[in-house]
Structures are given as C-alpha cells and as structure tokens.
Amino acid sequence: MSNLNVENYPDLVEPLSMEALEARLREVGETRYHHRHPFQLMLQHGELDKRQVQAWALNRYYYQAMIPIKDASLIARLDDPELRRIWRSRLVDHDGNAPGEGGIARWLILTDSLGLERELVTSARAILPATRFAVEAYTHFVRDRTLLEAIASSLTELFSPMVIGQRVRGMLEHYDFVSRETLAYFEPRLTQAPRDAEMALDYVKRHAQRADQQQAVIDALRFKCSVLWAMLDALSHAYVAPGQVPPGAWNGEAGPTS
Fold first, then answer.
1. In this structure, is residue 126 part of a structural domain?
2. Angstrom distance (rounded) from CA 94 to CA 116
3. CA spacing 20 to 30 A to 67: which of 36, 90, 136, 200?
4. Does residue 11 form part of some domain?
C-alpha cells in the first residue's frame, strides 16, 4: 500500500464545485473505507477459522440491528415529507414489513447457520466493548449532529457494493460452512446501497454550498469510515493475534466470558 494516495488536504477555505466535492468524498472512501482492513481481507481470502467468522457475524449483528434505529432518528428530523418517504425505505430494507422479512432477519439466518444461539446474538450481551462503543457513537452522531452531517455519514454506501461482492465470492469459495442461502443478506444490498448512496450524495452536493459545510460533510464520512474500521480493529485484537478476548465478550463457546 505504499503507493496509496493518502489524503493530505488542509481544511477547506474556499468551496469546491459539486464535482470536486464528490471526487473528494470518493477519495475518502478509497483511502479510509474498510475494504483495506486486514481483517476484511482475511475474511474474503479464507484466512479466518470458523470461530473468527462467528465472532465477526455476532458483532456485526449489533451494527445491523442499530441501523433502523439510526435511520428512524434521522427521519424524525426531516421537515420534507418527500425526503421522509424516500428515507423510510431504509427502515423497510432492514426491518421488513412483517416478521421474518428484511436485512436483520436475513443476518440472523447467517448467525443461525454458523451455530450461534439466536438469543445470544439478539441480546448483544456478548459483543466486544469496542463494537458497542463504535456503533453507539455512530447512532449518537446521526442523532446529534447537523442533518447535513448525519446524511453525509451514510455515504459509505457508495463503496459497500465493492466489498459485498468481494466478501461473498471469497466466503463461498473458501468456507464450506456458508452457502449462498446463508449469505442471503448481501444480495439485496447490491441494489439497495447504490440507490441510497445516490440519494444521499445528491442531497449533500445540493446542500453543502459553503466551505465549512463541505468540510463537515467530508469529516462526517471520515468519521463513519473510522467507525467501521474500529469494529474490525477490535475483532482483530480479540480473535486474531494476540487473541485477547475482553471479559464478558464471546469466547468461542455457548456464552460470553465471565
């Protein structure tokens, strides 16, 4: 990665054009999105054992489960009924319109197939402390920062289809304990994420006109990338070398450590 064009921009003083702002945001994704994280690369290259994949699925569930809560708090701040209707589709994507539907239900199919007890997963009592802190920092960010920053933080969806494709192909190729059916969460996201990202990008480009607004948008995307990166850092520390599982977190057995 020595040739990576790492961002080294000072804070904006003059506003960027809409095209330049989009280019700057895409560079944030190229340099900071978790497609470059060692744990993600190990996952898609078949270098994790089943226990490590279980730990990833268990901890990632908490992130998935909090997405509609995050989005509901954002919808509550929207004055425009049309924008509320558009954003509401994200709730349906994750919660579904009935029990057993939506992305959260599909994620539970994955954790079920990996042999994790459903109550252990949904209770979130055995997740890593850093997972909890990172996810809750994100939900608080969306609730408490400006609407522009809240919407901009969702722009990681510009880059997620790339990771999803690599992840699914790699897991199907390398792990005999997963199947296309158990990875069913990911296929709808290949169309949902680009749809949502384009809407958010359009909003950001139209509403971030001043330099300070554009800088806030860039920083919001950086923050969200850091949330995702920190979650994988925690998994690497706990379940890969040196393998120090924090007290109370899942230890590869039926329940958390004491």
1. yes
2. 20
3. 36
4. no
| pLDDT value at residue 256 | 53
Q: Residue 156's domain spans which residues?
A: 18-239
Instruction: Please name the amino acid found at residue 218.
Output: I
Which pTM does this prediction carry?
0.93
Q: Look at residue 253 and tell me if it is in a domain.
A: no
Q: What is the pLDDT of residue 258?
A: 45
Confidence band (pLDDT; 50, 70, 90) for 200? very high
Q: CATH no. for residue 187?
A: 1.20.910.10
- Count up the domains in the chain and report the number: 1
How far are the Cα atoms of 92, 107, 114, 140, 164 from residue 185, in angstroms, in the given order? 14, 6, 14, 25, 10
